[in-house]
Amino acid sequence: MARIAIADFLFYLSSAAFYPYLQIILRNNGYHHSSVGLILAIGEAASVVIPLLVANLADRTGKRRLCVIFCILLAILLFVPVSTSTTAWITILAMFFCRGLYSCLNPLLDSIATTYLEGDSSKYSTVRTIGTLGYVLACFFFGLSGIIQSGNNTTILKTFIICGTAFGVYCLTLPKMIDSGIMSRRIAKGDIKVYRHSDDHSRPRYGSPYEKSFVIFIIATFFLKLGNSAIERLLSSYMTEVMKLGDNFINYVALGSTAEIAIMLLSGYLIKKKNVPPTLLVILGGLGLCARLLIYAVWSSMPAFIIAQLLHGLTFGATQIGSVMFIAKSVPKENASMAMSIYTCIGTSLPNTIGSLLGGWIIESQGYEMMFVMYSAFALVGTMIFIITNRSLSVKK
């Protein structure tokens, strides 16, 4: 478990130099809000398509580790023109492939972790918490040390190259047992349990990621993540332009991520020890998301902003653990990479694509407040779908 946890730690270390700065990098290069929204949406579109192709390759060949290394190294190379080019077509092309390849890493790592850890929710939440710890520490370090200056793209680029390279090199040391061929032999020997089809047709069956419960889950997640795209893709400029946080904005990103740690550990414990349905955690996360977005919309004071950031523990921590464990309990291990990628691409990246494009236009025409209000409605729709269908989404252990 330790080696998987270190990989997660290093990956999220690199993420801290990547995701929070994408919008700022484009603004630094002179692009307007609407153009930034369009470019980010194109990048998100790539993260809908490319991870599915890479996941299919990883599941067919069993070379998950090599796929991870390939994706991070190419993403590093492509991040150079993303952060330096002021030519629109170069920026768009580089963003498309950079975001697409980097987006492959999270579902690949989740499929590796849930398979290697045999679907143990407590162990997975521990691994995921260590990853979050890497993100938090990196955010605080970047903000307090001044190693990254939000107005200087060169400092962002250098930091991402260092962190991304460290992650890629470490992945060479991951155990070969994560290859699906070796996993299949362990499954055949009975070393790893695989969820099979249930004889009870009134409950979700195991064996295919495309069954009714999985489809409902993805649809509900789509609306939930459409609301969350206001935070994932558009909050950085709100912090620098409205809250006037400057380079300190990254510390408030870290504050939100810090709240994840306790919630993730608690979520894993509740699923494993108390038999709490994973979808119940997603519902709690959805309600927290609605509240968080409305706080941003109604109150612009610092105390209210801090409260909203702390709600990240629910809006991401509980939602992430609940979603991944739902998939881990509902999909056979040999389809793990593809199922995680469907969740990431259709349930997350696609709504982020739409959210980035729509959000940039709303901000320019109506302002941040209206954008947050509209996106809270999307989050409410997703949460209500989960509440209404919660019984049919319940899975057996």
Write structural notes for this entry:
The protein is mainly alpha-helical. It has one domain: MFS general substrate transporter like domains (Growth Hormone, Chain: A, Up-down Bundle). It has helices at residues 2-15, 22-28, 33-61, 64-84, 88-102, 105-116, 121-145, 153-171, 180-189, 212-232, 235-241, 249-273, 278-298, 302-310, 312-330, 336-366, 368-388, 390-393. Helix 1 runs antiparallel to helix 8 (153-171) and helix 10 runs antiparallel to helix 17. The radius of gyration is 20 Å and the shape is globular. Residues 184-209 have low confidence and may be disordered.
Stated plainly, the CATH topology is called Growth Hormone, Chain: A
Shape: globular
Report the order of strands and helices.
HHHHHHHHHHHHHHHHHH
- Beta content comes to under 5%
**Helix percentage:** over 70%
Query: Mind telling me which CATH architecture this is?
Result: Up-down Bundle
Q: What's the N-to-C terminus distance?
A: 21 Å
Mean pLDDT: 84
Poorly predicted residue ranges:
184-209
What is the C-alpha radius of gyration, as a whole number of Å?
20 Å
Helix segment count? Answer: 18
- The secondary-structure class comes to mainly alpha
Q: Count the strands?
A: 0
- The name of the CATH superfamily reads MFS general substrate transporter like domains
